[in-house]
């Protein structure tokens, strides 16, 4: 049986040609294509600086380190996200907590954030960094979160792993108007891909310099950065701090640069698919994803909510029957704090009630630029059969 995945890359002959050219060139890493890709993403997103990294998880780690996150500090994020949004704090020895979601957008709720900040201020345990996640590609309420950051003194890293190509209030996600940094992922299920890969964007040149150094072992070869050493010794580089090898290769960057040219077309295709789903699923007992008027989503995911109704199939039954039909629906996401690793840190059920309801009701149905009309019709038909047994049987 043919299987339909929930997400998949779309690779053209031009993409393949771009990678082959790098293979025949002088540099497989640390050549001219990574900076070209960085400049193209920065320009597309209207940010001053963009730094390519080996994946978004590495990007989140570097972003946290650059903002000075360390032991004793606190990072807050959304519970409805991939674990990487929270793990970045643990890598730095910091603590994590979670702010409940807005049940309409599935994004961190700015009202819940403010409530939690008021309590945290009282006990002198304010977060150093807040990581809003643009869930499914729909931007968070960044204006409100930014206003709170000024009042309570935290930094903001946008986890925009889902959201390259999205717009907030008419401006591209990634311009960091309401944040300190933005991180994109180029994993194959995301909007554009480099295989593995990510990018950190910012407008602050000091951040950009630190990110650059941390990406490559904490080493600099810039005379201005280096400490004085005896003139009769060769000091052509210095390790100034402890960094990592989180670099992107030239092959990945070539693929990314080529994919970036199709970004707007990919997002346009995702919108067209979403519109078909919105219309074809409207009469079924489920909720299609609501869109805030401030947002132009990149539609990384298309989650449907199946509220518990009497005699109706449960979320789990829909999930299983779609899987059995070869349609690889998914769940984005299990609340991070319910994961065994986080439960061991002391988090308990009930911590974020909206996130837990979402977890019990939602499944992601296939959404990717290469999804064909035939496959989409098949998905709609299977959902209809699963969710309207009464109609069909009578
Ligand atoms: C995919 C994803 C990541 C991690 O991206 P990688 O590039 O695979 O490291 C982080 N956060 C979110 C929300 C994601 O969806």
Structural overview:
The protein folds into 2 domains: 13-260, Type I PLP-dependent aspartate aminotransferase-like (Major domain) (Aspartate Aminotransferase, domain 2), CATH 3.40.640.10; 263-393, Aspartate Aminotransferase, domain 1 (Alpha-Beta Complex), CATH 3.90.1150. It is α/β, with parallel strands linked by helices and 394 residues long. The strands form 4 sheets. Strands 1-9-8-5-4-2-3 form a 7-stranded mixed beta sheet, sandwiched between helices. A 3-stranded antiparallel beta sheet has the order 7-6-12, with no helix packed on it. It has 14 helices and 14 strands. Pyridoxal-5'-phosphate is lined by residues 55-57, 81-82, 84-85, 133, 159, 161-162, 185, 187, 198.
Which helices and strands occur, and which strands form pairs?
Layout: H1 13-23, H2 33-45, E1 49-53, H3 56-66, E2 74-77, H4 84-91, E3 95-98, H5 110-122, E4 129-131, H6 142-152, E5 155-159, E6 167-168, E7 171-172, E8 181-185, E9 198-202, H7 205-215, E10 219-220, E11 238-239, H8 250-260, H9 263-280, E12 295-296, E13 302-305, H10 315-324, H11 340-344, H12 353-361, E14 362-365, H13 373-387, H14 389-393
Parallel strand pairs: 2-3, 2-4, 4-5, 5-8
Antiparallel strand pairs: 1-9, 6-7, 6-12, 8-9, 10-11, 13-14
The structure holds pyridoxal-5'-phosphate (PLP).
Average pLDDT confidence is 96
Helix content: 25-40%
What is the strand content?
5-15%
- Assigned CATH architecture of the largest domain: 3-Layer(aba) Sandwich
Backbone shape: globular
Give the class from helix and strand content and strand pairing: alpha/beta
Please describe the biggest sheet, giving its number of strands, its sense, and whether it closes into a barrel: 7 strands, mixed
Number of strands: 14
- CATH domain fold name of the largest domain: Aspartate Aminotransferase, domain 2
H/E element order? HHEHEHEHEHEEEEEHEEHHEEHHHEHH
**Oligomeric state of the chains present here:** single chain
What is the CATH homologous superfamily assignment of the largest domain? Type I PLP-dependent aspartate aminotransferase-like (Major domain)
């Amino acid at each position: 049986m043919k299987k339909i995945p929930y997400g998949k890359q779309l690779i053209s002959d031009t993409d393949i040609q771009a990678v082959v050219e790098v293979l025949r060139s002088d540099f497989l890493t640390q050549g001219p294509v990574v900076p070209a890709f960085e400049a193209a993403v920065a320009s597309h997103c209207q940010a001053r600086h963009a730094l390519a990294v080996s994946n978004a998880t590495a990007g989140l780690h570097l972003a946290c380190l650059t903002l000075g996150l360390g032991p004793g500090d606190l990072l807050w994020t959304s519970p409805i996200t991939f674990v990487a949004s929270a793990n970045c704090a643990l890598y730095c020895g910091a603590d994590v907590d979670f702010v409940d979601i807005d049940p309409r957008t599935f994004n961190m709720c700015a009202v819940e954030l403010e409530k939690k900040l008021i309590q945290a201020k009282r006990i002198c345990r304010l977060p150093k960094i807040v990581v809003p996640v643009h869930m499914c590609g729909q931007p968070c309420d960044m204006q409100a979160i930014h206003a709170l950051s000024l009042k309570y003194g935290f930094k903001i890293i946008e986890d925009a792993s889902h959201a390259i190509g999205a717009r907030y209030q008419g401006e591209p996600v990634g311009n960091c108007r309401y944040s300190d940094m933005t991180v994109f992922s180029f994993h194959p299920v995301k909007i554009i891909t480099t295989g593995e890969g990510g990018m950190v964007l910012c407008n602050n040149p000091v951040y950009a310099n630190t990110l650059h150094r941390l990406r490559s072992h904490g080493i600099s070869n810039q005379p201005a950065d280096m400490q004085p050493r005896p003139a009769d010794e060769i000091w052509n580089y210095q390790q100034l701090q402890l960094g990592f090898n989180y670099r992107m290769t030239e092959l990945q960057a070539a693929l990314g640069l080529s994919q970036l040219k199709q970004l707007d077309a990919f997002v346009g295709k995702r919108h067209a698919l979403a519109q078909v789903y919105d219309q074809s699923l409207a009469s079924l007992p489920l909720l299609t994803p609501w869109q805030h008027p401030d947002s132009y989503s990149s539609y990384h995911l298309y989650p449907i909510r199946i509220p518990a109704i009497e005699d109706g199939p449960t979320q789990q039954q829909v999930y299983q029957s779609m899987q059995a039909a070869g349609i690889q629906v998914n769940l984005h996401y299990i609340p991070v704090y319910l994961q065994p690793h986080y439960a061991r840190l002391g988090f308990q059920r009930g911590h974020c009630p909206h996130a837990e309801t979402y977890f019990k009701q939602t499944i992601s149905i296939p959404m990717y630029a290469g999804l064909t009309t035939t496959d989409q019709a098949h998905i709609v038909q299977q959902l209809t059969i699963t969710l309207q047994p009464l109609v069909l049987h009578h």
